[in-house]
Design brief:
- Helix 3 (49-56) crosses helix 5.
- The chain contains 5 helices and 4 strands; from the N terminus they run ααβααββαβ.
- Strands 1-4-2-3 form a 4-stranded mixed beta sheet.
- It starts with 13 loop residues before the first helix and ends with a strand.
- The protein is an alpha+beta fold.
- It is 46% helix and 18% strand.
- The longest helix has 13 residues, at 14-26.
Length: 120
């Protein structure tokens, strides 16, 4: 199951999901600005799944979680996953892709996850 299982670019649907989550943290206007920055940043950086979880202070979801299980099935079927969207700060905000980070951790905690990152 290990290996290249990542797309090169986030999917279009990832940005509205990020906006929805971020609006809970900073309001709709600020979330919209962050998402605009994420869309315009075409640089992908790699971070270990374990480091992303630590920096975000989010717990690891188990393979029985419905979204984690669905993504594990996708990978097994050869479907590539979308890079994650992050907002850098303390803590790190996973704007979109939390489940995908957990999937990567279960495959290999040192797995490098492709990320699009902006500063708060």
């Amino acid at each position: 199951m290990e290996g290249e299982h990542w797309k090169h670019e986030p999917e279009a649907k990832d940005y509205p999901a990020a906006a929805s989550y971020l609006s809970l943290l900073v309001g709709a206007e600020a979330a919209s600005k962050l998402v605009k920055k994420l869309r315009s940043n075409d640089r992908i950086v790699l971070y270990a799944a374990k480091d992303l979880l630590r920096a975000s202070r989010m717990p690891l979801l188990g393979p029985e979680d419905s979204e984690v299980a669905a993504d594990l099935k996708k990978i097994k079927a050869g479907t590539k996953l979308s890079p994650v969207l992050l907002v850098q700060g303390d803590p790190l905000w996973i704007a979109d892709g939390y489940h995908r980070i957990c999937v990567s951790y279960h495959l290999n905690e040192k797995e490098e996850v492709p990320c699009r990152v902006v500063l708060r």
